[in-house]
C-alpha cells in the first residue's frame, strides 16, 4: 500500500493551542456487552453507572463515565476530551467552523456530574469517527485508586489511521493539540494537550475508524509487578511488555479486552511543565527499539516500519 504524505515535522499548532485538556471517555461497539462489562469490572475495577441504548456505561465512583459498551460489531463508536482551557469549547467550535467542519452541540447524555454549566460540541474526525469535546466535569472517581487493583485514570487514546498526516493536521491546526514526538517515517505521531507527553497518538495501520490502543495510568514502577501478577491470577494474558517506550519514556504493559481492543497500562510518562518553551518535536527512527527501549519482539499487531 502506498503511504500518504508524511506528517508535518515542525510544531505549528492552532492559535488557540490547548494546555489543559485531557481524555474523558471512550465508546466501543462490542459483540458481547455482558462479557465486556464483566471484564472491565473484574479486571479494571470499573462499575456500572447506567444503562444506555443497547449497552452500558462504566466509570469509577460517582464522577464522569469512562467507557461505554454498545452491542454490535467491534469498532470505535466515539471518543471524548474534557477541555479545561478558558473559552476552550468556544475556541474549538470557532476553529472547526472556520475550517468547514459540521459542528453539533454535544448531547447532554454524554456529560455526567457537571460542575456548574457544562457545554460541549461533537464533530466527525477525518477518519469518520465522532469526537466529543466538553468543558469541565466532576471526576472524583479518579486519582484515589488502589493502584494494585485499579488504575488511577484514563490516560490517552491512540488512533489507528490510513492517513496520519491528515489526522495530525486536523488536531494541530484546528483543534489545538501540539506534537511531542513522531517516527521519522511519519507513521506514528504523539500529541499533547496538557502537561502529559501525549493525550492522543496516531499510528498508520492502513485504514482509519478504530483505536490502535488506549491507556490507563498507574502510579509507578512498583505497581507493574502487582498488575502483571494480578493479570496472571485473572487469566488475562500479557500481550506486550513490561517495557519502556522511547517517545514519552513511559513504562507499559498491554493486554486485550474480550472484543480484542488493546489496553495499555502506563506509568511515569514524561511531562512538559513549561509551556513558554519553544519545543522542536523529536523524530525517532522507525525501529522496534524506539517503541520499546528495553528491546524484545513486537506483538503481531504492532509494526513500526515497512
Question: How would you characterize this protein structure?
Answer:
The chain is of the alpha/beta class. Helices cover about 15% and strands about 35% of the residues. A 9-stranded mixed sheet has the order 14-15-16-13-9-12-11-10-17, with helices on one face. Strands 2-3-4-1-5-8-7-6 form an 8-stranded mixed sheet, with helices on one face. A hairpin with a 2-residue loop joins strand 2 (about 45-50) and strand 3 (about 55-60). The protein is globular.
Fold blueprint:
Blueprint: E1 21-30, H1 33-44, E2 47-52, E3 55-59, E4 65-71, E5 75-83, H2 88-98, E6 104-105, E7 120-124, E8 130-134, E9 153-161, H3 164-175, E10 178-183, E11 188-192, E12 200-204, E13 210-217, H4 222-233, E14 240-244, E15 251-256, E16 262-267, E17 282-284, H5 288-291
Parallel strand pairs: 1-4, 5-8, 9-12, 10-17, 13-16
Antiparallel strand pairs: 1-5, 2-3, 3-4, 6-7, 7-8, 9-13, 10-11, 11-12, 14-15, 15-16
Amino acid at each position: 500500500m502506498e503511504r500518504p504524505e508524511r506528517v508535518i515535522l515542525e510544531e505549528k499548532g492552532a492559535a488557540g493551542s490547548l494546555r489543559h485538556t485531557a481524555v474523558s471517555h471512550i465508546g466501543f461497539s462490542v459483540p458481547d456487552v455482558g462479557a465486556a462489562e464483566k471484564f472491565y469490572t473484574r479486571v479494571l475495577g470499573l462499575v456500572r453507572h447506567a444503562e444506555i441504548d443497547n449497552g452500558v456505561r462504566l466509570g469509577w465512583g460517582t464522577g464522569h463515565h469512562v467507557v461505554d459498551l454498545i452491542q454490535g460489531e467491534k469498532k470505535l463508536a466515539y471518543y471524548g476530551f474534557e477541555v479545561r482551557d478558558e473559552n476552550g469549547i468556544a475556541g474549538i467550535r470557532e476553529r472547526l467552523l472556520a475550517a468547514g467542519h459540521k459542528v453539533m452541540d454535544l448531547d447532554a447524555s454524554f456529560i455526567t456530574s457537571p460542575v456548574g454549566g457544562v457545554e460541549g460540541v461533537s464533530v466527525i474526525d477525518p477518519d469518520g469517527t465522532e469526537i466529543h469535546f466538553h468543558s469541565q466535569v466532576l471526576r472524583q472517581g479518579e486519582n484515589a485508586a488502589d493502584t494494585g487493583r485499579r488504575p488511577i485514570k484514563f490516560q490517552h487514546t491512540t488512533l489507528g489511521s490510513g492517513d496520519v498526516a491528515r489526522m495530525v493536521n486536523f488536531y494541530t491546526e484546528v483543534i489545538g493539540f501540539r506534537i511531542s514526538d513522531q517516527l521519522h517515517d511519519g507513521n506514528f505521531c504523539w500529541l499533547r494537550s496538557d502537561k502529559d507527553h501525549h493525550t492522543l497518538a496516531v499510528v498508520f495501520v492502513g485504514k482509519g475508524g478504530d483505536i490502535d490502543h488506549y491507556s490507563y495510568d498507574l502510579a509507578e514502577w512498583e505497581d507493574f509487578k502487582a498488575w502483571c501478577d494480578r493479570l496472571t491470577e485473572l487469566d488475562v494474558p500479557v500481550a506486550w511488555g513490561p517495557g519502556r517506550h522511547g517517545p514519552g519514556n513511559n513504562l507499559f504493559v498491554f493486554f486485550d479486552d474480550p472484543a480484542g481492543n488493546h489496553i495499555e497500562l502506563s506509568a511515569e510518562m514524561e511531562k512538559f511543565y513549561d509551556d513558554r518553551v519553544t519545543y522542536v518535536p523529536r523524530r525517532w527512527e522507525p525501529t522496534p527499539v524506539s517503541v520499546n527501549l528495553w528491546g524484545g519482539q513486537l506483538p503481531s499487531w504492532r509494526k513500526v516500519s515497512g
